[in-house]
Amino acid sequence: MKIQNKSNYPNQQQYLSVKLLDEPSEYTAAARTMQAWANIARLQGNIASGQDKEHFASCEEIARGTAAMLSSMQSQDELYVCEDGFGRPQGYMVLNASGRSVVVEMMFTHPHNIKSPMNPNRIAGVGTRLMQEAEEIALDGVRFNGVVLTPFTDAIPFYEKLGYRPLNPRHSTQLFKSTQAI
User: Fold this and answer.
1) Which of 4, 71, 82, 89 qualifies as a FRET site for 107, CA 20 to 30 Å off?
2) 161 versus 171: which is more confidently predicted?
């Protein structure tokens, strides 16, 4: 998939690919990458102000938690990486496809790709590409009825833009997109 990089170089394009990581050594490497991303988010938060400062602090906390989660992944979970055209990780996603729905347990992109005035050279489309992969997996099997996730509050508009809706009006924090809507 070709993604236009919103940078100072309007003709620059990034090619994003998603692949399954299934070796324990790859989980360890992903956990180390997430620790490094947590440090990047902390540094960005140190020089940011206002809402950006809070956002990067939240990113740091999420990245550290994700690194811990990757270190102890369950056997039914699958780890995917989204890489740019140079093979560099730009985002990770953990899926559980053991039930009726594909469950996105976690999705995280590099802190430099977060929409912020501090990131004018971000690679746009990483989160969207990862969610497309989850949807493709849901369509691949007849047993799946869709994709379910529980996003952080500030990420809900992103998922709604992709067509995700509350699974249950009483539990609006859990979002769902049926295979018919994909």
Assistant:
1) 4
2) 161
Q: What is the pLDDT of residues 97-141, one digit of tens each?
A: 989 999 999 999 998 887 777 778 888 899 999 999 999 999 987
Please state, in angstroms and rounded to a whole number, the distance separating the CA atoms of residues 20 and 137: 11
CATH number at residue 126: 3.40.630.30
C-alpha radius of gyration, the chain, whole number: 16
If you search the block for the tokens 């394009």, which residue do you land on?
13
Which amino acid, one-letter code, is at 47? I
Collapsing DSSP to helix, strand or coil, 81 comes out as: strand
CA distance 24 to 72: 10
Q: How many structural domains are present in the chain?
A: 1
What predicted TM-score, i.e. pTM, was given to this entire model?
Answer: 0.85
Length of the chain counted residue by residue: 182
Spell out where the chain has E strands: 2-4, 13-15, 17-21, 77-83, 89-96, 102-109, 146-149, 165-168, 171-178
Contacts of 43-50 with CB under 8 Å at 24 or more apart are 44/111, 44/116, 44/118, 47/118, 48/116, 48/118
Q: Residue 89 belongs to what domain range? A: 2-181
